[in-house]
Amino acid sequence: MSTLEIKDLHVSVDTEEGAKEILRGVTLTINSGETHAIMGPNGSGKSTLAYSIAGHPKYTVTSGSVTLDGEDVLEMSVDERARAGLFLAMQYPVEVPGVTVSNFLRTAKTAVDGEAPKLRHWVKDVKDAMGNLRMDPAFAERNVNEGFSGGEKKRHEILQMELLKPKMAVLDETDSGLDVDALRVVSEGVNRVKEGTDVGVLLITHYTRILRYITPDHVHVFVDGRIAEQGGAELADRLEAEGYDRFLPAGAGA
Ligand code: ADP
Ligand code: MG
Ligand code: MG
């Protein structure tokens, strides 16, 4: 049983005009086996939370803490975070020239486990996971993120999650225009990992549609860098019906 604990987190981002405070006191605890959805209007700081947990250098934690089973995540290097069992989908968002998906996955698995996976099992695991995600085997020989469509990026992300078997996964949906088929495949992948392991999931999303496929145990509404409301899956239904208007200043629309 693992616990990711975020306590009174304040985060600033470096901008050309100087540091700007984005997260203004976020407190959240995720246990193994739980799925938490973070929802909120655009610009409310959802991705900033994900980047902060991932250790993105542009985001400065000015106070508060993030721990995994009591270990200080904010003190860890990006590699140490992965070895500790954190899966941060946005960790490698960029193209990796000359590195194939296949090599990338094996390197990542070796780094996380501290030893290279046994080749015969590994080849089968990759093949099975790709089959589950309905990915063309040729995909394994493409370079990471080079010319990937939104759907391919998401499948690649879930493929990593299936193979790396993290304790905690932070998935920023980035609302990247997945078509319904891709959305379903990705959601099924997350659900498969949830069924097969005791992973805790922090699912960040603007839209409620992915929550038709992945049922959250807890929903947190993010407004202006803070959690404004918390509830169960029914809160997502309410947001789908009503939008975020009641959380925004009168007249702001949305
Ligand atoms: P969300 O994911 O909820 O849409 P973000 O975390 O992306 O929100 O952004 C929150 C706020 O922080 C926005 O006002 C955004 O413009 C600002 N912000 C985020 N990242 C940066 C950055 N790298 N440089 C400047 N401003 C940023
Ligand atoms: Mg956004
Ligand atoms: Mg975002």
SSE blueprint and pairings:
Blueprint: E1 3-15, E2 18-31, E3 35-39, H1 46-54, E4 59-68, E5 71-72, H2 78-83, E6 86-88, H3 101-113, H4 119-132, H5 150-164, E7 168-172, H6 180-196, E8 200-205, E9 218-223, E10 226-231, H7 233-242
Parallel strand pairs: 3-8, 3-9, 6-7, 7-8
Antiparallel strand pairs: 1-2, 1-4, 4-5, 9-10
Helix pairs in contact: 3-5, 5-6
The structure holds adenosine-5'-diphosphate (ADP) and magnesium ion (2 copies).
One magnesium ion binds at residues 42, 47.
Family: Belongs to the ABC transporter superfamily. Ycf16 family.
Pfam family, one: ABC_tran
Domain ABC transporter: 4-249
Description:
By secondary structure, this protein is of the alpha/beta class. The protein has a domain at 3-91 and 166-247: 3-Layer(aba) Sandwich (Rossmann fold), CATH 3.40.50. 33% of the residues lie in helices and 28% in strands. It has helices at residues 46-54, 78-83, 101-113, 119-132, 150-164, 180-196, 233-242; strands at 3-15, 18-31, 35-39, 59-68, 71-72, 86-88, 168-172, 200-205, 218-223, 226-231. The model has no long low-confidence stretch (mean pLDDT 91). It binds adenosine-5'-diphosphate and magnesium ion (2 copies).
Number of β-strand runs: 10
- Widest sheet: strand ordering: 6-7-8-3-9-10
Beta-strand content: 25-35%
SS class: alpha/beta
Helix content: 25-40%
CATH class of the domain at 3-91 and 166-247: Alpha Beta
